Amino acid sequence: MKQYITLSEEVRQAKEQGKPIVALESTIISHGMPYPQNVQTAREVEQIIRDHGAVPATIAIIDGKIKIGLFDDELEMFGQSKDVAKASRRDLPYLLATKKLGATTVAATMICAEAAGIQIFVTGGIGGVHRGAETTMDISADLEELAQTNVAVICAGAKSILDLGLTMEYLETKGVPVIGYQTDVLPAFYTRKSEFPLNIRADDVETIASTLKVKWDLNLKGGVVIANPIPEESALDEEYINGIIASALKEAEEKHIKGKDVTPFMLAKVKELTEGKSLDANIALVKNNAVVGAQIAVSFNSIK
Questions:
Q1: What separation, in Å, do the N-terminal and C-terminal C-alpha atoms of the chain show?
Q2: Residue 55 host element (H or E)
Q3: What is d(CA 42, CA 244) in angstroms, rounded to the nearest whole number?
Q4: Which pLDDT tens digit goes with each residue over 230-283?
Q5: What is the Cα Rg of the chain in Å?
Q6: Contact at 8 Å (CB) between 282 and 124?
Q7: Is 159 one of the catalytic residues?
Q8: CA separation for the pair 287, 68 (Å, rounded)
Q9: How far is it, in rounded angstroms, from Cα 232 to Cα 241?
Q10: Could you tell me if 95 and 11 are in contact, meaning their C-beta atoms sit under 8 angstroms apart?
Q11: What is the pLDDT of residue 139?
């Protein structure tokens, strides 16, 4: 796989110098937020990671290569291009072979990060089991990747457009630890809480870093979810956002929107129905995850 990977100068130097590195996905830029907020957020998130002692590595597929670390003009290109493919595990071979542009999802970012020797990854929220999956079998590849790829994912829980209960059941079946950072319950992306308790809580990043080291020292394959709630001041009211999600889901169903098109449709619809409040919340939680992710990366780097 190494022949397909190219490192940015910043990432290459960080590896040579043994600095902590944090992976970032590119789907959040191309499919998760509108322009120009997507590019602005990507730049700010990268800077937050630098400010907290780590090196950011935004990952994307460009011209037949897996780019680990993007230049400013590449971030801009992903923010503005309309023909960027959403790349998951199944898409990587085709996109690399045909030299098409691909924005990496959580699953693909985990694969590429592990191949580049990066074990800490910051995102907004993971994918999961979609509502109605008992009949559609619509389950995000993110969960399967968490079961087999040794990368820790710092997120604000699973996106609340999903079936959170079934998502937690799936992760438990696959043996994926879900660690609540300063929380006893699973955060639900836009809100700090859900009805689902977590069986692991960590109140400091050192405990999380030590847990990651021991897990992988034991050769227990797979990732770890670090669930970091959205900051209190940016969280949306639970009843309000759940009502909007229900309305958006109904519309997606009526329009027969399925598979990987569901999440971008839902995020855009929820943004429209909340008059932009959900986008503000999304940006706030990603930045918050970047702070915690960089701190975990620094701590993990000092003990691994």
A1: 24
A2: strand 55-62
A3: 26
A4: 999 999 999 999 999 999 989 998 999 877 788 788 888 998 999 989 999 999
A5: 18
A6: yes
A7: yes
A8: 20
A9: 15
A10: no
A11: 93
**pLDDT at residue 179 tops 90:** yes
Residues paired with residue 202 on neighbouring β-strands, in sequence order: 181
Strand 85-87 to 21-24 pairing:
unpaired
Tally helices (H) and strands (E) across the chain.
13, 11
Active-site residue, selected from the candidate residues 67, 159, 269, 271: 159
The DSSP letter of residue 26 is S
Tell me the residue length of the chain.
304
Please identify which of the residues 10, 25, 74, 145 carries the catalytic annotation. Answer: 25
Cα–Cα distance measured from residue 26 to residue 121, given in angstroms and rounded to the nearest whole number: 12
Q: To 5 degrees, how large is the angle CA 194–CA 283–CA 130?
A: 45
pLDDT digits (tens, 9 = 90+) for 82-135: 889 999 999 999 999 999 999 999 999 999 999 999 999 999 999 999 888 888
Mean pLDDT of the chain: 95
Q: What is the pLDDT of residue 34?
A: 86
The parent domain of residue 13 ranges over 2-303
CB 127 within 8 A of CB 106: yes
Q: What is the tally of structural domains in the chain? A: 1
Instruction: Kindly give the pairing relationship between strand 65-68 and strand 55-62.
Output: antiparallel
Q: Residue 172 sits in a domain of what CATH number? A: 3.40.1790.10
Q: Describe the crossing of helices 277-303 and 37-51 by its angle, rounded to 10 degrees.
A: 30
Residue 44 annotated in active site: no
pTM above 0.85, yes or no: yes
* Of 11, 4, 211, residue with least CA distance to 118: 11
Q: Tokens representing 215?
A: 């897990």
pLDDT at 161: 83
Which tokens go with 16?
A: 């040579």
State how far the Cα of 211 lies from the Cα of 286, in Å rounded to an integer: 23
